[in-house]
């Protein structure tokens, strides 16, 4: 899914996540329930929940270098 999404972004194509075909056919969901692609959709795993307060406490006062931050990490720090 990530490779497809990256190609769509290059061409400025609007992308949406579609419900399962079975759910559309059986009426469990409607076409209006298409949604925007989110970072979590591209991870291929459950997102990691961080304890931001503890991390902030630990690194406050230090300079932090984040090298090679791409995709999910890079999008979160901008």
Offer a concise description of the structure.
The protein is mostly helical and 78 residues long. The protein has helices at residues 2-10, 21-26, 39-43, 52-59, 71-77, and strands at 16-17, 35-36.
Spatial strand order of the main sheet: 1-2
- Return the string of H and E elements: HEHEHHH
What is the helix content? 40-55%
- Label the overall shape: elongated
Evaluate the radius of gyration: 18 Å
- How far apart the termini lie comes to 23 Å
* Integer tally of domains: 1
Count of DSSP helices?
A: 5
Largest sheet: 2 strands, antiparallel
Strands, count: 2
Low-confidence stretches: none
- Helix/strand class: mainly alpha
Beta-strand content: 5-15%
Mean pLDDT: 79
